[in-house]
Amino acid sequence: MAKIATREAYGQALAEFGEVYKDIVVLDADLSKSTRTEIFKKKFPDRFFNIGIAEQDLMATAAGLATCGKIPFASTFAVFAAGRAYDQVRNSIGYPHLNVKIGASHAGVSIGEDGASHQMLEDIALMRVIPGMVVLSPSDAASTYECVRLAIEHEGPVYIRLGRLGVEEIYKKGELKLELGKGIVLQKGTDVGILATGLMVHEAIKAAKMLQDEGISVYLVDMPCIKPIDIDLILDVAKMTGCIVTAEEHNILGGFGSAVSEVLIQNYPIPVKMVGVNDEFGRSGKPEDVLKYYRLTAEEIVNKAKEVMKMKK
Amino acid sequence: MDKAKELELKKIATEIRKSIIIQTAEAGSGHPGGSLSGVEILTYLYFVEMNIDPKNPKDPKRDRFVLSKGHASPLLYAVLAEKGFISKEELKGFRQIYSSLQGHPDMKKVPGVEMSTGSLGQGLSVANGMALAAKLDKKDYRVYVLLGDGEIQEGQIWEAAMTAAHYKLDNLTAFLDHNGLQIDGKITEVMSPEPVDEKFRAFGWHVIKIDGHDFNQIEKAVNEAKTIKGKPTIIIAETVKGKGVSFMENEVGWHGTAPNKEQAQKALEELQKQYEALEVQG
């Protein structure tokens, strides 16, 4: 089966929704070939603005468009969207709660060869602490399409985390229906919960199979919506399994695992192990090699699952 | 501009100056210097030029104003109160807990505030976005933005300057409140942005230089900007920081310091005398 990167699905979704929602405008910062907003640009050249290599201007221009009723999708690499333009996202988009959607591609280490300067591992942390910011992290093409739809339908700022690497289909487009603030139960189980987001959902699916082959029952959840987070579902997993592993292509500090832990520690404290990058910057290499180097793998999820099961009271 | 009109505007400007002093004195904080320097510019825009209606602050056809130098909030609030967007009573709450008048303007809390500002360098980009939206929607409203001369040290201003020229935003007029001072001293000593006129011209803007306290020059410049096609206009307004209050004029210390009770009293007496002198004229 052909693999599709979530950034590719993002570009396609924008072009598709652009037909229906005439207020959608797309802005890019000289990366439209990479963020795939080029697909929208070709279809709707009048509603596409290339701001050049100027991410601060990109974000605040999007804010100005939003004050006039447009639905701007400000698109660039995650490292620039959440990092370089953080102040603009915070002050000109988040604080006035403007209807700007941030399409942040090339997140995580899986962009590979470009190395640490371009591998964004802090964006979930940075974006989820902005009051009112919705943070979405789709795992495949269909969930990306749904995330774009949710972003359009939600009034307010939304950050969509996208990857460069082609990934397999998990869901069929048209069959998946996402809700804001809801996770997707892939299977229920009783021995250990695995909650994953983005690219790591694919590894989590493999890990769940490996664990099941050893007779371990796994409650497996895809969490495309990091904020607002699905508290009810997290608690259901916690109560069913008594221990949880989180998996994300992000620094384990402040990221998805932290968000899950915040829910657990305040409501139903149970042991948690996190799979993610352990407070390090990325490095260059082939995407698959980099993912292995940082142990963003199914095998590591299996190891952590076994560890966390031993911690159950 | 006829004399009667000019006199009326001067009176409004003096009232606004009083309000800036009262707001900052009551709050015990705020930025009087750079608020006083922009008084004539905002007075002209709000009382002559802009198509705005306090009863319908969200009218899609309205002209937009962005206060990029958000620390001049007492100026904006005073103008909005004088125009009827907010009550004058509200001004007493400036910077106080439970008041909607935040230290820097919040568009979600105050009707008539078009953008939440305060982090310098972002307002020009926002104004670009508004001007782009007008072009997309084929609406003929205009967008105005007030920049500080220290503020243009922010790199984003020049990103936005490029964008405005690139997209030929002739429905955008920027004012530069060129008072020459910033918190740490003279702009030319801290980090000189000069020559600002040549810089903006090089970036593809139409540039007009005026005395920013002269209503006739402001009017002429605003009208000229409306005739310019295919490029944005910047009106470089030479102003005096602390204008109208003798002991505040050109004193860098009044950038972000509120007057105490006695100082406020003294300032208000001076402004009252200015007002009375205007009354004698008309």
Automatic annotation (TrEMBL), chain A:
Cofactor: thiamine diphosphate
GO molecular function annotation: transferase activity
Domain of life assignment: Bacteria
Residues passing through the membrane, by range: none
Residue ranges constituting the Transketolase-like pyrimidine-binding domain according to the UniProt record: 4-170
Keywords assigned by UniProt, alphabetized: Thiamine pyrophosphate, Transferase
InterPro entries: PDH/Transketolase, THDP-binding, Transketo_C/PFOR_II, Transketolase-like_Pyr-bd, Transketolase_BS, Transketolase_C
Family statement: Belongs to the transketolase family.
Listed PANTHER family: PYRUVATE DEHYDROGENASE E1 COMPONENT, TRANSKETOLASE-LIKE PYRIMIDINE-BINDING DOMAIN-CONTAINING PROTEIN
Name of the featured protein: Transketolase family protein
Automatic annotation (TrEMBL), chain B:
Keywords: Thiamine pyrophosphate
Needed cofactors: thiamine diphosphate
Positions of the Transketolase N-terminal domain: 11-269
Family per record: Belongs to the transketolase family.
PANTHER family: TRANSKETOLASE N-TERMINAL SECTION-RELATED (PTHR47514:SF1)
Protein name according to UniProt: Transketolase
Provenance organism: Caldicellulosiruptor changbaiensis
